[in-house]
Specification:
By secondary structure, the chain is α+β, with helices and mostly antiparallel strands. 59% of the residues lie in helices and 15% in strands.
Length: 561
């Protein structure tokens, strides 16, 4: 039986592990299976415990009832011999009964506690200790009990051989037939003549009970295994497999595999969910294809609009440049008018010297020609600076000195500053001011900001320009004025294309913003009405993207050559 139980246990755990092998410990199926298995084990264990307890109780009651019947039968068999006081026959009865299977011993005690008859002749005539287990039931009380209940008559103890023994005490009452018999001298007042003590072995009963208990455990374990396997099979088929397919489907859709379809058909909720999932996937695929088509169309249109915007931006730069050139032309016209007037005056004087040499000294002609040369040179410088600003080689990136670009820009607007009596304060940082840039674009930035600042100030204003060399190879340029400032409500719009608050503005701030972006820099503005405006520009010495683009362009030219 022990070997069978071990086999059942191994089979149980083996089958359970095989069922659980297909389940993840974190899966819903495993949690449901684990819960059902616990409930199943608890239910079967409760039922098995109730059955075993009921069976043992029933067996014990049956044994006790049989023992009482056997004791009454023995007392009835010996009654005639006791009435006749036939001691030999009574002893034979004791010995014969003791030989029966399951009988551990038979004794008859008289009232003082002496063994009158026994299957063991050696103990006949001996007196039993009043504290012995068969005597203590009555004599533990004072006076001794005259009537015993069924429970008090029965005792269970362990024999020296290790098995249980059922002892049954059966009182021998003093009946009229006893005290009236001529062979007895019992007084009618004596209610109890002695005791019949029968000891029955419970070894066979215990072995049978143990076998029955083991069989019940075995059959219950088999039922648990079979039920657990059925539960596992149903859970895998009805829950685990559909959930695993649905989970795989969601992962495939999450990875944008919209061609995936869940291969699961059922009429329950899982089947309905699979069908809904497949329908959703088909709709997502159709929507995705439509989105891709629209994305391609949108990308093409964006590319077309981007080209149009680039052309519009180039046109905007050209328009702003022409507007700036118009303003600069007026400035240059005023600037050139003075030296030209001097040239004309001194040229007339030289002409008079030639016509009437006697009226002038010999050194006057040299002095006048020198003035004409200086004024002509001055005109040439002004025109040269105007040509530098007006040149069309935008996007030509070279290493230039920032302070040199600043000085050239100041020369272009110097006359306008003088007309409005604007003072200039320069605070140029000492050190290496080398900058890899589009010098023409940087010069346009300065000219635009200078002109806007001059126009924003009344006579006697002040224009300040500072440069600082920052960490990470950046340069900070601060341009501030004491003009009327920019209203707070329009400050966020000043870098928008075509936005202006004046009829004519030099180079637009939108173009300034775009040029700074091309140099991977940034521009900040801080302005308060009637206090002035400050523009802060940050430029990297070597724009990474521009340098990378130029390097790639050089490599392409090298590979083509």
């Amino acid at each position: 039986m022990a070997a069978v139980q071990d086999w059942v246990k191994r089979l149980f755990f083996k089958k359970i592990l095989l069922v659980m092998a297909g389940l993840s410990f974190r899966s819903l199926s495993f949690k449901l299976y684990f819960l059902l298995a616990i409930l199943l084990i608890i239910s079967f264990a409760g039922i098995m415990y109730f059955n075993i307890t009921s069976y043992i109780t029933h067996i014990n009651e049956s044994v006790m009832h049989s023992a009482i019947q056997a004791s009454d039968l023995i007392k009835g068999s010996a009654r005639y011999s006791m009435l006749k006081n036939d001691r030999e026959h009574l002893q034979n009865i004791m010995s014969t009964i003791a030989k029966e299977e399951g009988v551990e011993g038979v004794r008859i005690y008289n009232k003082p506690g002496q063994i009158s008859f026994s299957d063991n002749l050696t103990e006949v005539g001996t007196t039993v200790d009043i504290d012995a287990e068969q005597c203590s039931v009555c004599h533990k009380n004072v006076p001794p009990l005259e009537h015993l209940t069924t429970q008090n008559r029965i005792r269970i103890f362990t024999s020296p051989q290790g098995h249980r023994v059922l002892g049954l005490i059966n009182p021998i009452a003093n009946e009229p037939e006893c005290f009236n018999a001529p062979c007895h001298g019992h007084s009618p007042k004596d209610k109890l003549l002695g005791l019949l003590d029968v000891k029955l072995s419970l070894k066979a009963v215990d072995e049978e009970t143990q076998r029955t208990k083991e069989q019940m455990i075995l059959y219950s374990s088999i039922m648990i295994v079979i039920t657990a396997l059925l539960f596992g099979g149903f859970i895998i088929k009805l829950i685990h497999t559909p959930v695993r397919k649905l989970t795989k489907g969601t992962r495939e859709v999450a990875n944008l595999n919209l061609d995936y379809s869940i291969d699961f058909r059922s009429n329950d909720e899982m089947g309905e969910l699979a069908r809904s999932f497949n329908q959703m996937t088909r709709q997502l695929k159709a929507a995705n294809e439509a989105n891709q088509e629209w994305s391609a169309i949108l990308e093409r249109k964006v590319q077309e609009k981007s080209e149009e915007l680039k052309k519009a931006q180039a046109h905007l730069i050209l328009v702003e440049k022409i507007a700036s050139l118009g303003k600069l032309s007026a400035i240059v016209a005023h600037e050139i008018n003075n030296p030209l007037s001097g040239i004309l005056t001194y040229a007339s004087l030289c002409l008079k010297i030639i016509q009437n040499p006697s009226s002038f000294s010999s050194g006057d002609s040299v002095k006048y020609l020198t003035v004409i040369k200086d004024e002509a040179k001055r005109c040439g410088e002004i025109v040269k600076n105007l040509l530098v600003f007006a040149k069309k080689d935008f996007g030509k990136w070279t290493e230039e000195r920032l302070h040199h670009i600043i000085n050239n820009s100041i020369r272009l607007v110097k006359h306008n500053m003088d007309l409005k009596e604007v003072s200039l304060a320069l605070d140029l940082a000492e050190g290496d001011d080398l900058l890899f840039c589009d010098s023409s674009g940087i010069q346009q930035i300065f000219v635009a900001l200078f002109i806007n600042a001059i126009e924003a100030m009344s006579k006697g204003g002040k224009l300040t320009l500072k440069t600082r060399f920052l960490e990470k190879r950046h340069i900070q340029i601060v341009i501030s004025d004491t003009g009327f400032g920019i209203p707070e409500e329009i400050l966020p719009k000043i870098f928008e294309p075509f936005f202006t608050t004046k009829e004519s503005t030099g180079l637009g701030l939108a173009v300034v913003y775009r040029i700074i972006q091309q140099h991977e820099g940034k521009i900040e503005v801080n302005s308060k009405p009637n206090e002035g405006t400050t523009f802060t520009i940050y430029l990297p010495r070597e724009p990474y993207k521009v340098q990378e683009r130029l390097d790639n362009h050089s490599n392409n030219l090298g590979s083509q050559s």
